[in-house]
Amino acid sequence: MGMSLMRYVNPFEELEQIQRELDRFFGDGLLSRFFGRRDEQWYPAVELRETDKEYQLMVDLPGINKEDVEIRIEDNLLTITGERKFERDEKKENIHFVERRYGRFTRSFTLPSNANPDKITAEFKDGVLHVTIPKRAERKGKKITIK
To answer: Helix, strand, coil shares of the chain as percentages rounded to 5?
Structure first.
């Protein structure tokens, strides 16, 4: 009984070939249709905590440099914008699939009435942006004497 040899086919090579042909036809990436365009807006995960003295806002930004992030306050609105850039070495890398989101992002938060926007600080550590929003000292009510 003879043994038949089968040629090994890398399924990713075939997928990439199909993608290249579809790219030429549609002018857009096949994988970006499944996982979202690289230039689409995306929204990083956020966590907000409160203590007696402050609010703590944590934003997950893995793979982003702090120079690519901006924090602004306007009219009691805290806005965080930035960009995760898609970088690829065409000569060395074959990308098989992409689930990470790339491009610009914006997250906005209305500051609570007891927040002190003049004292907000921010720190970037291990891919997480930590924004600390101190609370204002509570204003005590004042009794008004009727004359």
So the answer is: 20, 35, 50
